[in-house]
Structure to design on (356 residues):
């Protein structure tokens, strides 16, 4: 098996020189490792990692309380509903779709929960009913997109208004606070160590998202559909089923996030979750997920979650107002959509030293 080929092409019985192999082996391996590390550093995830380190260093220098364990748990707990929905939004955008109704569904499920409890419905039954409402709303979006063929941008924009309107019909201009003490404790008190229930749910969903997207056939189908819809259809993928499942899951997780939001605040209003879709979409696009679908990873989204949370937390510790924070996130949204397109232009259109 170790015989060499001689000049005429026949096998030579002489084995390779072990000294020659030992001299030649490490150099190519080291070069390949260096090349892989260089490519990783130059990647979008590498850029996000450097940006994250800069934000952490800046926050640590400006606020002594930033690196405390209590602050680290709190900054996640205060935005956990957004990052939970950002996980399923990653799948939706990878599939070359968009769901603008997620924040309105969060508000609707929270308001429906308060209304049901006010009507005397037991809390466990009310929670299950609100999760079903979320699935039903997501399936409603999926029907118009997969069966009727309407663009997801149009459908979910309409339901952004529709779900928010239903929430306001249920609670009008009132606040509902009639929740059991155990329900509020689940949203406000640590459950395992310093971690509340919402953070535990997020970690479980994060692991599930990584496994499904990277190691399952369904994850590959999500990517293929996002890259080329027609190719996906010709290859036998049930495109309608995949999209329907994504939008139904989006509605379900949005409803779950709304319930967790209600538990954390201990009260519900018709404007709950208003504007959350801006942060959610910013997180996904900043994480390197292409708005056109088919490109991106959960790892980039994880880095993006940390960047957005640390950025908001640093601005809060520096007493920067919420409106200015929203403006900064809006600029991030623009940059996250623009920079990858500029990089693609430079890579494919511009040659070293001249245009094509």
């Amino acid at each position: 098996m170790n015989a060499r080929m001689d000049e005429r092409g026949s096998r030579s019985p002489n084995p390779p020189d072990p000294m020659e192999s030992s001299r030649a082996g490490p150099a190519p391996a080291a070069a390949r490792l260096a090349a892989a590390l260089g490519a990783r550093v130059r990647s979008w995830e590498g850029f996000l990692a450097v940006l994250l380190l800069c934000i952490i260093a800046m926050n640590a220098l400006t606020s002594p309380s930033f690196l405390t364990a209590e602050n680290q748990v709190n900054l996640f707990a205060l935005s956990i509903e957004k990052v939970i929905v950002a996980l399923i939004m990653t799948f939706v955008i990878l599939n070359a779709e968009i769901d603008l109704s997620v924040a309105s569904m969060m508000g609707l499920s929270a308001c429906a929960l308060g209304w049901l409890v006010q009507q005397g419905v037991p809390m466990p039954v009310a929670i299950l009913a609100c999760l079903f409402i979320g699935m039903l709303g997501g399936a409603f979006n999926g029907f118009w997109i997969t069966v009727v063929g309407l663009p997801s941008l149009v459908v979910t924009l309409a339901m952004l208004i529709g779900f928010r309107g239903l929430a306001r019909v249920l609670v009008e201009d009132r606040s509902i606070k009639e929740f059991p003490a155990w329900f509020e404790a689940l949203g406000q008190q640590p459950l395992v160590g310093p971690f509340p229930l919402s953070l535990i749910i997020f970690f479980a969903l994060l692991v599930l998202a990584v496994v499904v997207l990277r190691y399952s056939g369904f994850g590959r189908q999500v990517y293929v559909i996002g890259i080329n819809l027609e190719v996906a259809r010709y290859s036998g993928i049930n495109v309608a089923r995949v999209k329907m499942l994504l939008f139904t899951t989006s509605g379900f997780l949005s409803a779950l996030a709304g319930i967790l939001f209600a538990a954390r605040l201990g009260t519900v209003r018709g404007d709950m979750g208003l504007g959350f879709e801006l942060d959610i979409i910013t997180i996904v696009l900043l994480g390197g997920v292409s708005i056109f679908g088919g490109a991106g990873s959960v790892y980039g989204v994880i880095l993006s979650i940390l960047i957005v949370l640390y950025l908001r937390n640093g601005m809060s510790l520096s007493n920067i107002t919420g409106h200015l924070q929203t403006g900064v996130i809006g600029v991030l949204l623009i940059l996250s959509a623009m920079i990858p397109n500029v990089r693609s232009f430079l890579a494919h259109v511009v040659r070293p030293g001249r245009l094509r």
Remarks:
- The chain has 16 helices and four strands.
